[in-house]
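Feature request, filed as a ticket because there's no other form

It would be nice if the structure record came with a short human-readable summary line next to the tokens. Right now we just get the raw output. Example of a typical job, pasted below so the devs can see what we mean:
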Amino acid sequence: MDNKILVILPHPDDEAFGLSGTLARRIDEGAHVTYACLTLGEMGRNMGVPPFANRVTLPQIRKGELLASCRVIGIQDVRMLGFHDKTIEFEDKDRLDGQIHALLEEVRPQTVYTFYPGFSVHPDHDACGAAVVRTIARLPAASRPAVLCIAFSRDREEKLGSPDVTINVRPYLKRKIASLLAHRSQFQIPELKEGQENDRELEERFGTEGFYTFHFD
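Raw output as currently delivered:
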């Protein structure tokens, strides 16, 4: 069993869509999760419907939404690393990799979740995943945690195949939906409401989460 899990993603809300059900399940099974969010998503275009945020207030609003989402999931340790939204690919690699390395040294995770570089659509997603993989690759092979990656580019299955790790999160749909709804400045999903976790259509859409194991050799 993975007792220590480290999640490294660039934006508030990445955890909600990508792996909130998996994390809720792992936490209920006894795992301790540290979630390092690189930015506060301060360059996001959505301000709520009707708008309740603006460019000045959005960072703090998204910080609050992130914390609310993590509380619902059950994440015990949330870190906000203070990098700039939409610029991860341009950040100083020594600084970025150094913070990731420090987290790995502190947490000593058995498993790390991040985005699959090159298959995650957003430049921040790809750059985050690339930094995680780059940093872990420098560790001795025997010391490397397993790296499970989220990928959702259109060509992922053509080039990577199907996810080799698939998690049934139907028992955790209530928490997943609440995690998604916590990010209310960013998402308006009319069909998504609390109390609908037994809806068959929602189960089909959100009931499984898939990951690709990153292979270093």
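Something like this underneath would help us a lot:
Strands lie at 4-9, 32-37, 77-80, 111-115, 146-150, 165-168, 208-213.
The mean pLDDT is 94.
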